[in-house]
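Worked problem 6 (solution included).
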Amino acid sequence: MKRFESLGGWGRAATSGLLVALLAACSVEPTYKRAEVDTPAVFKETPAASAQDTGTWKQAQPADDAHRGQWWTIFGDPQLNALEEQAAAANQDLKAAAARVQQARAVTRAARSDWFPKLDAGFGPTRERVSAASQFQPASAGGTTGTIWRAQVGASYEADLFGRVGSNVNASQADEQQSEALFRSVQLSLQADVAQNYFQLRELDTDQDLYRRTVALREDTLKLVERRFKEGDISELDVSRARNELASARADAVGVARQRAASEHSLAILLGKPPADFSFAEAPLAPVTVRVPPGLPSALLERRPDISAAERAMAAANARVGLAKSAFFPKLDITGAFGYESATLGDLFMWSSRAFILGPFAGTALTLPLFDGGRRKANLAQARSKYDEDVAQYRQQVLVAFREVEDNLADLRLLDDQMREQNNAVQASQRAAHLSRTQYTEGAVSYLDVIDGERQVLQTQLQASHLSGTQAVATVNLIRALGGGWSDVKAPDAAVGSVTPASGAVAAATSASAPAVTEQVAKR
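Solution. The predicted structure is:
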């Protein structure tokens, strides 16, 4: 190893260090600014409300990492609460999302390590030939060949010129925050999927109950028809028709049971259980009349984790533009080493065998790229295009979020009217079926009128059951579209009731809704 003397003393070292610090402060990363989006003052489908309930427009501030609260408790269903807890503890997709967050955090730590010097230690011999010119000897003297033993500690450090290291750290941090937002998105989707699947199961249970009552009614009708046939009041045609209606009702009941089995299996997977180890007791769906406050459109940008993930992708792309720009500027790698070297192993650790290389300029490499065939320009163009792509995707995600909220608000508003009219249709069909059976018994109408009346009752009841299930699912979809629950939403006094916000603005929830990311990983 060549021995170097100190260059210029402490004054020159201080001057060099100051120069490096100034260059490191000259970051070429563009200043990040969140892309602007058109945000309406209120949702179009929000019911008319007072100014106090509506609130005022405000600039959106990220709040996607706020705890959402156990929003499903507003339905007042202990079984649903238990299912949500099981899913949070055992769902494999959620565990995978938590593991991805840990991966992103590890990448960030690796990027931050570039801010610190790297140290290593080495020991061993080196066979080398030293030229006469390097020893200030005449050419006729020739070179010397020998073995050098070394035991040394080395250090290397890349000065953060023009923000190259800082931009890489910023990009990694934004990627980490994006992974955390995606974890919360998976978590919210899981919670909503469990609630939706649960309500769909309950809807199918209601259908099964309707078919059981329908089958029982048609069995009684068949007995009546067979008795009248034996008495000679009617022909065999009516008996065949009654038997056909009974068999059709039984077949439809089996079809509903098949759908319920598939839905139960899907719920088991969401809970992280094999379908063979999971069964759910049958219970009809109770009407859901919970009312969810939509809040302000600007609050939607704060709460939706998928919007936060899209925004963090923009920040990461912006940092990588700076990283691509820094490739056009010089790069300074500082290295140094201290230890011992000797021609013989026995003299290696003697005090006179010590040797060192010290910076800042001794042992450094200041490189300036001159020509690379356009690679750096292409990388910069790619980074800028990626940023433009992420801006467009962010704005599109915001538009999709607004549409989803409006869709579900419209569904819930119109479903109220549709369910009210459907209930009237059920009552009217039941009255018509009763009259047709009475008149058939008296011989005033044919059996076709009875069949038609009973079919109408079953169809209107099934449609009412479907609307009840759709309303429950739409309520869950609205909560999902809004980004979760709220601290100012309270459970109704009864299992079924209305829920109104304490104020028009959506407040960030403070109660914990699910295990933390680290807890999810620990449970793997």
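Discussion: DSSP finds eleven helices and five strands in the chain.
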